[in-house]
């Protein structure tokens, strides 16, 4: 399991940013960052405009959009729980874990992804691919079906993870973090243009998360 302790200097800087905001910091600016810690947020917001594919953060609660580098996404300490049986990819049952769930819970981010700004017909099969290439620390993104069975989309111990997004579509994930501290997720979106067959990409984009102890 990788840890975030080797990034102590960066973590200290992020802590200073968060310390300057009142708690809970639902959507408060501090310097060059906005801290989002509650409510509905499309972390991976997708748009295609003027020939460019874009990743951004869409704060549904305040009808605001941000570049990923302008935002710290905070998992409040209410996210802290223990790993249930049958979720071995998270670690040993009973160990601590911080989870932002795929259902709306007061006091936590309801974090998802959205392609509502992608027009039908722009991309082949109306499909784009989201890939998480890497993460600082122990991170897992997963869904759970109606029978309670998890499907892992990204596991930081296993390397890159991808899933498909439909134009105009929207979805939510469970975001699990192995310990408190600072995390960076490196993400890319790409798709094949229906008109030309050309593959367009956002390039690799960094997102920042702070998990409260």
* Overall pLDDT score: 88
User: Which percent bin holds the helix content?
Assistant: under 10%
Distance between the termini: 18 Å
User: Stretches where pLDDT falls below 50 for ≥5 residues?
Assistant: 1-11, 17-30
The radius of gyration computed from the alpha-carbon positions, rounded to a whole number of angstroms, is 17 Å
Query: How does the overall form come out from the CA principal axes?
Result: globular
| Estimated structural class | mainly beta
How many domain units? Answer: 1
So how many helices? 1
SSE sequence, one letter per element: HEEEEEEEEEEEEEEEEEE
Strand content: over 45%
**What is the strand tally?**
18
**How does the major sheet shape up?**
8 strands, mixed
